[in-house]
């Protein structure tokens, strides 16, 4: 297998890196690999902890980002510094709050790179762990549902997006397209836009192996999810080749509501007309449809090791369209300068 460079950006995540980084440094990989961590000016002792860990791990390299930058996204600058410092062609991007599901994560991701000729991008799976209550359930459901749709799309037409938690990327492809030169001042969506602009059906593969999944800590801040949704609406505004994916996504989100409203109307009309057979058939048809959707989705949850969702799933499926509409409205009435990096 080819040598690999793993790129991680970190900001104020000393405790997280102390828990997660050893699992990445101890991957069972038959070739050489290096781990590059870019510290984004942390003040919680992240840099000193990484430098101490670097002395014990020769394949760990730590980079300190410049103290300030003008009109450039800190995320894009940190990733660019890490990629420029990489000594290998294949890059693996992940986050500081992520940990591999097994010691064979890197092996399976790179095997997917080599399995298909012409592959330049490999999109892997990830899931949230550790969240509790409604916030945790919502984050886990929404991440799983997004992947359920966009990984299927990536296998047929190329990746629509990728949040960078589990991504393989060729270094030469990054520099061929001038890195993050486009939209350099957008605060979020670096890997999403990069993958959307450069992924095709011919150069993209999807790694579905259960041991190649990345586990990401569920953010504790309950407002994080809403903020991410609004920022994604701005990121999506800069995407290309969106018609097919957006149509599929909207169809999946709206079909649940259409079936529910239609069958509810038939059920109510049947009761008014005292046609109880038709009322029973409409109610039964709705249950059959919901059982089919829930079974299909829970089957995917089982494949990634996510606990199945039974009772709350019908409600969550109906809320997707509401969440997306609310995020779009908040984005519409938000000053667009909020999404751009300014001088610090």
Structure explained in plain terms:
The protein has 344 residues and is α/β, with parallel strands linked by helices. It has two domains: 4-241, Spore Coat Polysaccharide Biosynthesis Protein SpsA, Chain A (Alpha-Beta Complex), CATH 3.90.550.10; 244-334. It has helices spanning 14-25, 46-56, 74-85, 105-115, 133-157, 171-176, 190-198, 224-236, 243-272, 276-303, 313-332; strands spanning 4-10, 33-39, 60-64, 90-95, 98-100, 121-123, 126-129, 167-170, 204-206, 214-217. The chain has a seven-stranded mixed beta sheet with strand order 3-2-1-4-8-6-9, with helices on both faces. α1 packs parallel to α2 (46-56), α8 packs across α11 (313-332) and α9 packs across α11. The protein is elongated, with a radius of gyration of 22 Å.
CATH fold naming of the largest domain: Spore Coat Polysaccharide Biosynthesis Protein SpsA, Chain A
Number of DSSP-assigned strands? 10
Mean pLDDT: 89
Specify the overall morphology: elongated
CATH superfamily placement of the largest domain? Spore Coat Polysaccharide Biosynthesis Protein SpsA, Chain A
CATH class of the largest domain: Alpha Beta
| SSE-based structural type | alpha/beta
Portion in beta strands? 5-15%
The helix fraction, in percent, is 40-55%
Strand order of the largest sheet: 3-2-1-4-8-6-9
Radius of gyration: 22 Å
Distance between the termini: 42 Å
Return the CATH architecture of the largest domain: Alpha-Beta Complex
Give me the strand/helix succession: EHEHEHEEHEEHEHHEEHHHH
Q: Which segments are poorly predicted (pLDDT under 50) over 5 or more consecutive residues? A: none
Largest sheet: 7 strands, mixed
Number of domains: 2
How many H/I helices?
11
